[in-house]
Protein backbone atom coordinates (compact mmCIF):
# COMPACT_ATOMS: atom_id res chain seq x y z
CA UNK A 1 0.00 0.00 0.00
CA UNK A 2 1.30 3.44 -0.97
CA UNK A 3 0.18 7.00 -0.32
CA UNK A 4 -0.95 8.59 -3.59
CA UNK A 5 -2.25 12.01 -2.55
CA UNK A 6 -3.03 14.27 0.41
CA UNK A 7 -5.75 16.93 0.20
CA UNK A 8 -7.29 19.41 2.61
CA UNK A 9 -10.53 21.25 3.24
CA UNK A 10 -11.25 24.10 5.64
CA UNK A 11 -14.76 23.98 7.06
CA UNK A 12 -15.94 27.21 8.65
CA UNK A 13 -17.30 26.23 12.06
CA UNK A 14 -16.74 28.32 15.17
CA UNK A 15 -13.10 27.86 14.19
CA UNK A 16 -11.74 27.16 10.69
CA UNK A 17 -11.50 23.36 10.91
CA UNK A 18 -8.51 21.99 8.95
CA UNK A 19 -9.58 18.61 7.57
CA UNK A 20 -7.12 16.28 5.87
CA UNK A 21 -7.56 13.26 3.62
CA UNK A 22 -4.71 10.88 2.81
CA UNK A 23 -5.36 8.72 -0.28
CA UNK A 24 -3.82 5.33 -1.09
CA UNK A 25 -3.37 3.11 -4.14
CA UNK A 26 -5.70 0.46 -2.66
CA UNK A 27 -8.67 2.81 -2.35
CA UNK A 28 -8.44 3.36 1.39
CA UNK A 29 -8.73 7.01 2.43
CA UNK A 30 -7.65 8.26 5.84
CA UNK A 31 -9.39 11.20 7.51
CA UNK A 32 -7.68 13.57 9.93
CA UNK A 33 -7.89 17.06 11.37
CA UNK A 34 -5.28 19.55 12.49
CA UNK A 35 -5.75 22.39 14.99
CA UNK A 36 -7.19 25.55 13.45
CA UNK A 37 -4.02 27.65 13.18
CA UNK A 38 -3.59 29.55 9.91
CA UNK A 39 -1.37 28.15 7.18
CA UNK A 40 -1.91 24.50 8.12
CA UNK A 41 -3.18 23.57 4.66
CA UNK A 42 -0.05 25.10 3.08
CA UNK A 43 2.10 22.99 5.37
CA UNK A 44 0.13 19.87 4.43
CA UNK A 45 0.92 20.60 0.77
CA UNK A 46 4.60 20.55 1.72
CA UNK A 47 4.14 17.33 3.68
CA UNK A 48 2.47 15.72 0.66
CA UNK A 49 5.68 15.93 -1.36
CA UNK A 50 7.45 13.98 1.41
CA UNK A 51 4.83 11.25 1.90
CA UNK A 52 3.51 10.35 -1.56
CA UNK A 53 4.85 6.90 -2.46
CA UNK A 54 5.43 5.94 1.19
CA UNK A 55 3.71 3.10 3.09
CA UNK A 56 1.01 4.63 5.36
CA UNK A 57 1.27 1.67 7.76
CA UNK A 58 4.64 3.00 8.99
CA UNK A 59 3.01 5.74 11.06
CA UNK A 60 5.74 6.44 13.60
CA UNK A 61 8.46 6.32 10.94
CA UNK A 62 6.51 8.78 8.75
CA UNK A 63 5.85 11.03 11.79
CA UNK A 64 9.58 11.05 12.51
CA UNK A 65 10.30 11.76 8.82
CA UNK A 66 7.88 14.71 8.86
CA UNK A 67 9.33 16.10 12.11
CA UNK A 68 12.93 15.71 10.90
CA UNK A 69 12.50 16.90 7.32
CA UNK A 70 10.50 19.97 8.38
CA UNK A 71 12.67 20.83 11.38
CA UNK A 72 14.05 23.90 9.64
CA UNK A 73 10.47 25.06 9.05
CA UNK A 74 9.74 24.76 12.78
CA UNK A 75 8.90 21.41 14.33
CA UNK A 76 9.60 22.56 17.89
CA UNK A 77 6.17 24.19 18.04
CA UNK A 78 3.44 25.86 16.03
CA UNK A 79 1.59 25.33 12.77
CA UNK A 80 4.08 22.80 11.37
CA UNK A 81 3.52 20.48 14.35
CA UNK A 82 -0.25 20.97 14.10
CA UNK A 83 -0.22 19.98 10.42
CA UNK A 84 1.91 16.91 11.17
CA UNK A 85 -0.58 16.00 13.93
CA UNK A 86 -3.49 16.10 11.49
CA UNK A 87 -1.68 13.96 8.92
CA UNK A 88 -0.71 11.44 11.63
CA UNK A 89 -4.38 11.11 12.60
CA UNK A 90 -5.30 10.39 8.96
CA UNK A 91 -2.50 7.78 8.74
CA UNK A 92 -3.82 6.00 11.85
CA UNK A 93 -7.31 6.06 10.32
CA UNK A 94 -5.88 4.23 7.27
CA UNK A 95 -4.06 1.69 9.46
CA UNK A 96 -7.25 1.01 11.42
CA UNK A 97 -9.25 0.56 8.23
CA UNK A 98 -6.57 -1.70 6.75
CA UNK A 99 -6.44 -3.88 9.89
CA UNK A 100 -10.22 -3.59 10.42
CA UNK A 101 -9.76 -2.35 13.96
CA UNK A 102 -10.57 0.90 15.83
CA UNK A 103 -7.78 3.44 16.34
CA UNK A 104 -7.93 3.03 20.14
CA UNK A 105 -6.81 -0.56 19.59
CA UNK A 106 -3.69 0.75 17.82
CA UNK A 107 -2.93 2.82 20.94
CA UNK A 108 -2.89 -0.18 23.25
CA UNK A 109 -6.60 -0.81 23.67
CA UNK A 110 -9.26 1.00 25.62
CA UNK A 111 -9.62 1.54 29.34
CA UNK A 112 -13.18 2.79 28.90
CA UNK A 113 -16.00 2.52 26.36
CA UNK A 114 -17.01 6.15 26.60
CA UNK A 115 -15.06 9.32 27.23
CA UNK A 116 -16.20 12.04 29.62
CA UNK A 117 -16.66 15.41 27.91
CA UNK A 118 -16.71 18.91 29.37
CA UNK A 119 -18.53 21.78 27.71
CA UNK A 120 -16.54 24.92 27.08
CA UNK A 121 -19.07 27.69 27.56
CA UNK A 122 -16.79 30.75 26.99
CA UNK A 123 -19.60 33.39 27.36
CA UNK A 124 -17.32 36.34 26.68
CA UNK A 125 -20.23 38.69 26.05
CA UNK A 126 -21.93 38.09 29.41
CA UNK A 127 -21.69 40.90 31.95
CA UNK A 128 -24.49 40.40 34.52
CA UNK A 129 -24.38 37.70 37.19
CA UNK A 130 -27.85 36.51 36.18
CA UNK A 131 -26.66 36.03 32.61
CA UNK A 132 -23.88 33.75 33.86
CA UNK A 133 -26.41 31.80 35.93
CA UNK A 134 -28.66 31.36 32.86
CA UNK A 135 -25.77 30.18 30.71
CA UNK A 136 -24.73 27.69 33.42
CA UNK A 137 -28.27 26.26 33.58
CA UNK A 138 -28.44 26.05 29.78
CA UNK A 139 -25.22 24.01 29.62
CA UNK A 140 -26.19 21.78 32.55
CA UNK A 141 -29.52 21.04 30.90
CA UNK A 142 -27.64 19.77 27.86
CA UNK A 143 -26.48 16.94 30.12
CA UNK A 144 -22.89 17.93 30.89
CA UNK A 145 -21.55 17.41 34.40
CA UNK A 146 -18.29 19.22 33.70
CA UNK A 147 -18.33 22.81 32.44
CA UNK A 148 -15.71 25.46 31.67
CA UNK A 149 -16.06 29.23 31.58
CA UNK A 150 -13.61 31.94 30.57
CA UNK A 151 -12.63 33.74 33.75
CA UNK A 152 -10.41 36.41 32.18
CA UNK A 153 -13.24 37.99 30.20
CA UNK A 154 -15.76 38.35 33.05
CA UNK A 155 -15.21 42.09 33.42
CA UNK A 156 -12.43 43.44 31.17
CA UNK A 157 -13.40 46.98 32.13
CA UNK A 158 -12.00 46.27 35.61
CA UNK A 159 -8.57 45.53 34.16
CA UNK A 160 -7.49 49.01 32.97
CA UNK A 161 -4.17 47.85 31.50
CA UNK A 162 -4.55 44.65 29.50
CA UNK A 163 -0.82 44.47 28.80
CA UNK A 164 0.75 44.49 32.25
CA UNK A 165 -0.72 41.16 33.47
CA UNK A 166 -1.89 42.78 36.70
CA UNK A 167 -5.17 42.03 38.46
CA UNK A 168 -6.85 44.54 40.73
CA UNK A 169 -8.48 43.56 44.02
CA UNK A 170 -11.73 44.85 42.55
CA UNK A 171 -11.44 42.52 39.56
CA UNK A 172 -10.62 39.51 41.74
CA UNK A 173 -13.66 40.29 43.92
CA UNK A 174 -15.85 40.44 40.79
CA UNK A 175 -14.44 37.11 39.56
CA UNK A 176 -15.18 35.51 42.93
CA UNK A 177 -18.71 36.95 42.88
CA UNK A 178 -19.44 35.49 39.43
CA UNK A 179 -17.81 32.13 40.23
CA UNK A 180 -19.86 31.93 43.44
CA UNK A 181 -23.05 32.49 41.45
CA UNK A 182 -22.11 29.90 38.80
CA UNK A 183 -21.02 27.40 41.44
CA UNK A 184 -24.22 27.84 43.45
CA UNK A 185 -26.33 27.52 40.29
CA UNK A 186 -24.57 24.35 39.13
CA UNK A 187 -24.58 22.71 42.55
CA UNK A 188 -21.95 20.40 44.05
CA UNK A 189 -22.29 17.59 41.50
CA UNK A 190 -21.13 19.58 38.46
CA UNK A 191 -17.39 20.08 37.98
CA UNK A 192 -16.44 23.65 37.13
CA UNK A 193 -13.24 24.66 35.31
CA UNK A 194 -12.12 28.26 34.69
CA UNK A 195 -9.80 29.51 31.95
CA UNK A 196 -7.42 32.48 32.32
CA UNK A 197 -5.71 32.29 28.87
CA UNK A 198 -2.18 32.98 30.21
CA UNK A 199 -3.17 36.43 31.43
CA UNK A 200 -1.59 37.18 34.82
CA UNK A 201 1.68 37.70 36.65
CA UNK A 202 2.72 35.18 39.29
CA UNK A 203 1.69 37.21 42.33
CA UNK A 204 -1.77 38.07 41.03
CA UNK A 205 -2.30 34.54 39.71
CA UNK A 206 -1.59 33.27 43.24
CA UNK A 207 -3.99 35.85 44.75
CA UNK A 208 -6.68 34.75 42.29
CA UNK A 209 -6.10 31.02 42.81
CA UNK A 210 -6.22 31.47 46.60
CA UNK A 211 -9.38 33.59 46.38
CA UNK A 212 -11.03 30.71 44.47
CA UNK A 213 -10.03 28.05 47.01
CA UNK A 214 -13.48 27.96 48.67
CA UNK A 215 -14.84 26.54 45.40
CA UNK A 216 -13.99 22.89 44.59
CA UNK A 217 -12.85 23.67 41.04
CA UNK A 218 -12.00 21.01 38.50
CA UNK A 219 -9.14 23.34 37.61
CA UNK A 220 -7.94 26.89 37.01
CA UNK A 221 -6.45 26.96 33.49
CA UNK A 222 -3.38 28.83 32.31
CA UNK A 223 -3.14 31.53 35.01
CA UNK A 224 0.33 32.63 33.81
CA UNK A 225 1.91 32.75 30.31
CA UNK A 226 2.92 29.42 28.71
CA UNK A 227 6.61 30.21 28.32
CA UNK A 228 7.89 29.73 31.87
CA UNK A 229 7.29 26.49 33.75
CA UNK A 230 9.10 27.78 36.86
CA UNK A 231 6.63 30.67 37.14
CA UNK A 232 3.59 28.42 36.85
CA UNK A 233 5.17 26.03 39.35
CA UNK A 234 5.27 28.89 41.89
CA UNK A 235 1.52 29.34 41.40
CA UNK A 236 0.90 25.61 41.83
CA UNK A 237 2.93 25.51 45.04
CA UNK A 238 1.02 28.41 46.57
CA UNK A 239 -2.59 27.24 46.22
CA UNK A 240 -5.00 24.38 46.82
CA UNK A 241 -6.77 25.26 43.54
CA UNK A 242 -5.72 22.71 40.87
CA UNK A 243 -3.80 24.33 38.00
CA UNK A 244 -4.14 23.02 34.43
CA UNK A 245 -2.05 23.85 31.36
CA UNK A 246 -0.91 22.39 28.03
CA UNK A 247 -2.95 23.61 25.04
CA UNK A 248 -0.21 26.03 23.97
CA UNK A 249 2.60 23.48 24.33
CA UNK A 250 3.93 21.08 21.70
CA UNK A 251 5.36 17.54 21.82
CA UNK A 252 6.62 15.73 24.90
CA UNK A 253 9.56 18.13 24.98
CA UNK A 254 7.30 21.16 25.34
CA UNK A 255 5.25 19.47 28.06
CA UNK A 256 8.25 18.02 29.95
CA UNK A 257 9.27 21.05 32.08
CA UNK A 258 5.66 21.65 33.14
CA UNK A 259 5.30 18.01 34.15
CA UNK A 260 8.69 17.63 35.82
CA UNK A 261 8.78 20.98 37.64
CA UNK A 262 5.38 20.63 39.27
CA UNK A 263 3.94 23.40 37.08
CA UNK A 264 0.52 21.78 36.71
CA UNK A 265 -1.83 19.49 38.56
CA UNK A 266 -3.43 18.45 35.25
CA UNK A 267 -1.76 18.42 31.81
CA UNK A 268 -4.13 19.34 28.97
CA UNK A 269 -2.55 19.02 25.51
CA UNK A 270 -4.48 19.76 22.34
CA UNK A 271 -4.11 16.36 20.65
CA UNK A 272 -4.49 17.41 16.95
CA UNK A 273 -2.02 20.22 17.66
CA UNK A 274 0.68 18.93 20.00
CA UNK A 275 1.98 16.13 17.77
CA UNK A 276 -0.93 13.74 17.27
CA UNK A 277 -2.29 10.59 18.86
CA UNK A 278 0.90 8.62 19.52
CA UNK A 279 2.71 11.69 20.83
CA UNK A 280 -0.22 12.40 23.17
CA UNK A 281 0.08 8.86 24.51
CA UNK A 282 3.76 9.51 25.19
CA UNK A 283 2.90 12.78 26.96
CA UNK A 284 0.32 10.98 29.07
CA UNK A 285 2.87 8.33 30.02
CA UNK A 286 5.38 11.00 31.03
CA UNK A 287 2.74 12.80 33.11
CA UNK A 288 1.65 9.49 34.63
CA UNK A 289 5.15 9.03 36.06
CA UNK A 290 4.43 12.15 38.14
CA UNK A 291 0.83 11.12 38.92
CA UNK A 292 -0.52 13.98 36.82
CA UNK A 293 -3.80 13.23 35.00
CA UNK A 294 -4.36 14.00 31.32
CA UNK A 295 -7.20 16.14 29.98
CA UNK A 296 -7.61 17.09 26.31
CA UNK A 297 -8.07 20.61 25.01
CA UNK A 298 -10.23 20.53 21.89
CA UNK A 299 -11.80 23.05 19.49
CA UNK A 300 -12.18 20.64 16.55
CA UNK A 301 -14.92 19.39 14.30
CA UNK A 302 -16.22 15.88 15.08
CA UNK A 303 -13.16 14.46 13.27
CA UNK A 304 -10.53 15.84 15.63
CA UNK A 305 -12.86 15.38 18.58
CA UNK A 306 -13.38 11.67 17.89
CA UNK A 307 -9.64 11.26 17.22
CA UNK A 308 -8.97 12.82 20.64
CA UNK A 309 -11.58 10.52 22.20
CA UNK A 310 -9.67 7.48 20.91
CA UNK A 311 -6.66 8.72 22.88
CA UNK A 312 -8.92 9.40 25.87
CA UNK A 313 -10.14 5.82 25.76
CA UNK A 314 -6.61 4.41 25.54
CA UNK A 315 -4.91 6.53 28.25
CA UNK A 316 -5.10 5.13 31.77
CA UNK A 317 -5.00 8.55 33.45
CA UNK A 318 -7.49 10.27 31.15
CA UNK A 319 -9.75 12.77 32.86
CA UNK A 320 -11.98 14.67 30.43
CA UNK A 321 -12.19 15.91 26.80
CA UNK A 322 -13.23 19.43 25.81
CA UNK A 323 -16.22 20.14 23.56
CA UNK A 324 -16.24 23.67 22.18
CA UNK A 325 -19.05 23.62 19.61
CA UNK A 326 -22.34 23.45 21.50
CA UNK A 327 -23.57 26.45 19.50
CA UNK A 328 -22.91 24.86 16.07
CA UNK A 329 -26.19 23.05 15.25
CA UNK A 330 -24.72 21.08 12.31
CA UNK A 331 -21.66 19.80 14.26
CA UNK A 332 -22.93 16.19 14.48
CA UNK A 333 -24.36 16.26 10.97
CA UNK A 334 -20.85 16.87 9.60
CA UNK A 335 -20.23 13.16 10.16
CA UNK A 336 -23.78 11.99 9.48
CA UNK A 337 -24.78 11.91 13.15
CA UNK A 338 -27.40 14.68 13.05
CA UNK A 339 -30.09 12.39 14.48
CA UNK A 340 -27.76 10.47 16.77
CA UNK A 341 -25.39 12.92 18.48
CA UNK A 342 -21.85 11.81 19.20
CA UNK A 343 -21.98 13.31 22.71
CA UNK A 344 -24.87 12.22 24.92
CA UNK A 345 -25.29 13.19 28.57
CA UNK A 346 -21.73 14.46 28.71
CA UNK A 347 -20.05 11.36 27.28
CA UNK A 348 -18.74 10.40 23.84
CA UNK A 349 -19.09 6.66 23.20
CA UNK A 350 -16.60 5.21 20.71
CA UNK A 351 -17.82 2.74 18.11
CA UNK A 352 -15.88 -0.41 17.24
CA UNK A 353 -15.82 0.58 13.57
CA UNK A 354 -12.39 0.42 11.88
CA UNK A 355 -10.19 3.50 12.05
CA UNK A 356 -11.63 6.62 13.65
CA UNK A 357 -15.16 5.40 12.95
CA UNK A 358 -16.36 8.65 11.40
CA UNK A 359 -16.69 9.84 7.79
CA UNK A 360 -17.65 13.27 6.51
CA UNK A 361 -21.04 14.12 5.03
CA UNK A 362 -19.49 15.72 1.97
CA UNK A 363 -22.68 17.44 0.79
CA UNK A 364 -23.13 19.21 4.13
CA UNK A 365 -19.45 20.03 4.54
CA UNK A 366 -19.27 21.57 1.06
CA UNK A 367 -21.93 24.04 2.17
CA UNK A 368 -19.68 25.24 4.98
CA UNK A 369 -16.32 25.40 3.21
CA UNK A 370 -14.33 28.54 3.96
CA UNK A 371 -14.87 30.82 0.94
CA UNK A 372 -11.95 30.99 -1.42
CA UNK A 373 -10.70 27.53 -0.47
CA UNK A 374 -11.10 24.17 -2.18
CA UNK A 375 -12.93 21.18 -0.70
CA UNK A 376 -10.36 18.37 -1.05
CA UNK A 377 -9.36 19.79 -4.41
CA UNK A 378 -12.87 20.64 -5.64
CA UNK A 379 -14.55 24.03 -5.70
CA UNK A 380 -17.46 24.37 -3.28
CA UNK A 381 -19.88 27.16 -2.40
CA UNK A 382 -18.95 27.65 1.25
CA UNK A 383 -19.72 30.53 3.56
CA UNK A 384 -17.88 32.90 5.88
CA UNK A 385 -16.57 31.72 9.26
MG1 LIG B 1 -7.75 27.36 27.44
What is the structure about, briefly put?
With 385 residues, the chain is α/β, with parallel strands linked by helices. 38% of the residues lie in helices and 17% in strands.
How would you describe this structure in keywords?
13 strands, Enolase-like, domain 1, 38% helix, single chain, 10-stranded mixed β-sheet, binds magnesium ion, TIM Barrel, 2 domains, alpha/beta, 3-stranded antiparallel β-sheet, 17% strand, 14 helices, 385 residues
Please provide a written account of the structure.
With 385 residues, this protein is an alpha/beta fold. The chain has 2 domains: 3-100 and 360-367, 2-Layer Sandwich (Enolase-like, domain 1), CATH 3.30.390.10; 105-349, Enolase-like C-terminal domain (TIM Barrel, Alpha-Beta Barrel). It is 38% helix and 17% strand. The protein is built from 14 helices and 13 strands. The protein has helices at 40-51, 59-69, 71-74, 79-99, 103-106, 129-141, 169-186, 202-211, 229-237, 251-260, 271-274, 277-288, 302-314, 362-367; strands at residues 3-12, 16-24, 29-34, 114-120, 146-150, 191-195, 219-221, 243-245, 266-267, 294-296, 318-323, 343-344, 347-349. The strands form 2 sheets. Strands 4, 5, 6, 7, 8, 9, 10, 11, 12 and 13 form a 10-stranded mixed sheet that branches. The protein has a 3-stranded antiparallel sheet with strand order 1-2-3. Strand 12 (343-344) and strand 13 (347-349) form a beta hairpin. Helix 2 packs antiparallel against helix 4, helix 6 (129-141) runs parallel beside helix 7 and helix 10 (251-260) packs parallel to helix 12. The longest helix is centred in the first third of the chain and has 21 residues, at 79-99. The chain is globular. The mean pLDDT is 96. The structure holds magnesium ion. Magnesium ion is lined by residues 195, 197, 221-222, 247. The site of magnesium ion has 5 residues, from loops.
Amino acid sequence: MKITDIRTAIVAGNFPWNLIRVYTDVGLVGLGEAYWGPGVTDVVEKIKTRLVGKDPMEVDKLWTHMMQSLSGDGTVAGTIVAAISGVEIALLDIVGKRLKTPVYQLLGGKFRDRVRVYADSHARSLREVDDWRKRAVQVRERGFDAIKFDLDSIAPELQPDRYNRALSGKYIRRMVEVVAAISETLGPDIDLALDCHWSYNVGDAIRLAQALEPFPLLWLEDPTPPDNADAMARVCAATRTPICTGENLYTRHGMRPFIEKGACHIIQPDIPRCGGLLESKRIADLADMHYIPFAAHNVCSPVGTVASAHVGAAIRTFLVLEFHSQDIPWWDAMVGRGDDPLIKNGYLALSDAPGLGVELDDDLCRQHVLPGTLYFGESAPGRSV
